[in-house]
Design goal:
Layout lengths: L2 H7 L4 H10 L1 H7 L1 H12 L10 E5 L5 H9 L4 E6 L2 H9 L1 H7 L3 E5 L12 E7 L8 H11 E12 L5 H8 L13 H10 L3 E14 L2 H11 L15 H11 L8 E13 L22
Parallel strand pairs: 1-2, 1-4, 2-3, 4-5
Antiparallel strand pairs: 5-7, 6-7
Helix pairs in contact: 4-5, 8-10, 9-12
Length: 295
Amino acid sequence: MSNKNSEQAYKIDKQWLSHSFSHAARSYDEVAVLQREVASRLFSRLEYIQLKPETILDLGSGTGFCSNLLFDGYKKSSIYSLDISHGMLAHAKAQQGFLKKLKGRTRYLCGDAEQLPLQNEMCDMAFSSLMMQWSFDLDKTFTELRRVLKPGGLLMFSTLGPDTLKELRASWKAVDDKAHVSAFIDMHDIGDALMRSGFSDPVMDVENITLTYSSVNNLMMDLKKLGSRNALQGRQHGLTGKDKVKKMMEVYEQFRKDGLFPATYEVVYGHAWVPESGIAPSKIDNGFPIPVRSS
């Protein structure tokens, strides 16, 4: 496969991604153990940062866990909960207790991280937990975040690195040459993208978190309930044959330890600042934020 074809194969199909997460909205919270833990660890890092944001962007807000943390942590802030999945946003709004708690301080936006539906220099802080791995053009995402953040604004995020689901990737590689697992970006390349986009003083670190499952099928079911199904353009369209899935599971047996199957997640944490002064970002305006209405 040529480099060009390989790059295209790993490009995210955003329409399918949105559909997949919308479909998983109701089942997401019951299996989002890792997502909640990473979000909580990321949020705890804000304790060491002196910032009193008036306006916060929760990028990749999903069912609202991070927006809830931000609401409690910054009681005078307004929050924009933005997600590519209308179904996720509608589910968050439909949770009655959550809706009453956030009423008047949160607006729900359906949009793409690479083309944010926000005005220039609108936010004091952007918080994004485990979303950026779904952005194919990270430079464009960071450039957009740089645009909507005010001078002195903070970007706080977590994402996934290349060792994520390495066991699953290796098992599928033994079966066929299709793209089954995303090509996650290395921490150092993420830092370089931040600098290219005009952020300053980036701080990055990484940790590996391993979940274990009694069967490979349980892992696959959890990924499906999370909406983390294969959204790559190079995926096999249509149903994957039972024989291929069986072969993949057989290969996965080599990773079994103490009767359990590991699933590794390389979690990258980072934060960076918008310079107080200097060259301003391009004054691109993608429009005014529009609240998402529940159907």
